[in-house]
Write a structure and sequence with these properties.
Blueprint lengths: L11 E6 L3 E7 L5 E8 L3 E3 L2 E3 L2 H13 L9 E6 L5 E3 L18 H11 L8 H10 L10 E3 L1 H10 L3 E3 H4 L14 H12 L13 E3 L10 H6 L14 E2 H8 L7 E6 L3 E6 L12 E4 L5 E7 L4 H16 L6 H12 L10 E3 L16 E3 L8 H26 L6 E5 L9 H9 L3 E4 L5 H15 L6 H9 L5 E4 L3 H16 L1 H10 L2
Parallel strand pairs: 1-6, 6-11, 9-10, 12-18, 18-19
Antiparallel strand pairs: 1-2, 2-3, 4-5, 7-8, 12-13, 13-15, 14-15, 16-17, 19-20
Helix pairs in contact: 2-3, 8-13, 9-10, 10-11, 11-12, 11-15, 12-15
Length: 518
């Protein structure tokens, strides 16, 4: 944490509710980080569904903002959070069921039916899939639903009173028309036909937040909203449209133009690739979403990212403590990741699965973390850790192959951000080898989406008339940012391919573990 002097109205505040940490980032007029604050939180598995308590969200928001110090005047604020999921409210604004997060895969029937009926891929975690599954399951609450939104949309609504959402986050609720950059009207009509047969008479568009593009006004902080933030931000401060972590990740890496993309690695891991053209057909492995400006994006989203790596790092940290060696989390990660560079390029016959939850890309409704080896496989630190890192990218690689090989989409470079890339030159190197594309990391890689939503707030405040988001990022934000780019290494690439072949064959073991271990 750093504490600045009271800032002026050129500063922007970004707050992101991530999967394991709520983070606040204050940036100056030149988009430099002035201060950061954070608060750890964790999802809970309740009644076989992944959720977070909304009271915990507000406590974390206040704690994160309090760590910034005396803010004084702030020029603009932005809210971001985990994309997708389901928050349903009645006409009085009361939450009807606990927040259902992107991590849930109980929506398989809804996902399959809607994908077929709408003619586009509707992933398990999308808000409309959650709503439709509730209809299929005849849940009592659906007859009282008056408003459905995402976590970012909910927080923004409580702060401003405005039921609006950024187009990038909206594209994880319902398909977006690439021409109008609003909800696809033909698909809305088709959904209403399907839903009316299940008892939902209210048109879906009346249940969803209004779509806003990057730079559009999206309301001001009310007295009630300011109180929600502990009185740290002045009443009347303007807010930009709320966005999901996918959209803010694109902004944080400057990848909002065609032939660019980014990978965000946290509890989940996903890639966003800005498209030059329409895909030839729908693919189960690919979501069609948008940038915060409404441009089409293909997304490869994997439910399982770095959580299993974190668990192993914690275990090795405990072992170090038991030996009487005190080592920080950063030191443990740096040591383990450094060892991975010396591991066998193909993982030495080891297999690891990081599946804490279900994984739609590999058609698993639940997950069981596993490490598997043959009797002849070496069990030594470097190869073990390389296998764990390969595992974090394996499912992403399966989806990226559909995009890059089957669809022939071309990429000039991929930008990477998130905690996995804080240890320089390791995860970045293995990601480049896995997807055969140069991977770039900048100084803001660790700040991620909280910095990205602060930049979106600044864009709404400081852009010139009719300036596009891509131009603003190129000329105002990233013009002088130093990037470190790693090219794919031939030996690593060949080794990763060998590992992935075993990984795909071994999915039968993962499925057996799900069936056997309850």
């Amino acid at each position: 944490m750093s504490t600045p002097e009271p800032v002026d109205e050129t500063a922007s505040l970004g707050i992101e509710l991530g999967s394991t940490r709520i983070k606040a980032v204050l940036i100056g007029r030149e988009h430099e980080v002035l201060a950061t604050g954070g608060h750890d939180w964790e999802n809970q598995f309740v009644d076989r569904l992944w959720t977070y308590g909304l009271d915990d969200a507000w406590a974390g928001l206040r704690a994160s903002c309090a760590e910034l110090g005396d803010l004084g005047a702030v020029g603009s604020v932005g809210i971001s959070a985990m994309m997708h999921g389901y928050l349903a409210f009645d006409a009085d604004g009361e939450l009807l069921v606990p927040f259902r997060t992107w991590r849930n895969t109980n929506t398989d029937a809804a996902s399959r039916q809607l994908s077929e009926m709408l003619g586009t891929n509707i992933p398990h975690r999308w808000s409309v899939a959650h709503l439709y599954q509730a209809l299929l399951d005849h849940e009592e609450h659906v007859g009282r639903v008056a408003y459905v939104t995402t976590l970012a949309g909910y927080v923004h609504w409580q702060l401003t009173g405005e039921k609006v959402i950024g187009v990038g986050d909206a594209s994880g609720m319902f398909p977006i028309d690439p021409v109008t950059r609003g909800y696809d009207e033909a698909m809305l009509a088709r959904f209403d036909e399907l839903a009316s047969g299940l008892g939902l008479e209210t048109p879906l568009v009346d249940l969803l937040p209004t779509v806003r593009l990057a730079g559009d006004p999206a309301g001001e902080l009310t007295e009630a909203g300011a109180a929600r933030l502990g009185g740290l931000v002045p009443v009347g401060t303007p807010l930009c449209p709320p966005e999901g972590d996918a959209g803010t990740g694109m902004v944080a890496t400057g990848s909002v133009a065609p032939r660019t993309g980014n990978v965000s690695a946290g509890t989940s891991i996903f890639a966003m690739v800005v498209l030059e053209r329409e895909l030839s057909r729908p693919h189960r492995e690919l979501d069609l979403v948008t940038t915060p400006a409404g441009d089409p994006v293909a997304m490869v989203h994997c439910n399982n990212g770095a959580s299993e790596l974190q668990a192993w790092a914690n275990l090795f940290g405990e072992f170090a403590t038991a030996l009487g060696v005190e080592a920080s989390s950063e030191k443990v990660f740096a040591t383990l990741f450094g060892a991975a560079l010396e591991g066998a390029p193909d993982g030495g016959g080891l297999l690891a699965y990081n599946y804490l939850s279900g994984e739609p890309i590999t058609e698993l409704e639940e997950g069981r973390p596993l490490v598997v080896r043959t009797p002849g496989s070496p069990l030594e630190l470097g190869t073990f850790m390389r296998t764990q890192l390969y595992s974090a990218f394996a499912t992403l690689k399966i989806g990226m192959d559909v995009l890059l090989k089957d669809e022939g989409v071309e990429l000039d470079t991929m930008f990477a951000h998130g905690g996995l890339f804080k240890t320089k030159g390791v995860a970045q190197r293995f990601l480049a080898a896995s997807i055969r594309v140069p991977v770039s990391v900048g100084d803001v890689a660790g700040e991620g989406g909280a910095w990205g939503i602060a930049v979106l707030a600044a864009f709404g405040q400081h852009r010139t008339a009719d300036q596009s988001l891509a131009d603003y990022l190129d000329t105002r934000v990233f013009a002088d940012v130093e990037l470190v780019t790693v090219e794919p290494d031939a030996d690593d690439a060949a080794g990763f391919d060998a590992f992935l072949e075993r990984y795909v064959a071994g999915l039968a073991v993962q499925r057996a573990a799900v069936d056997a271990l309850r």
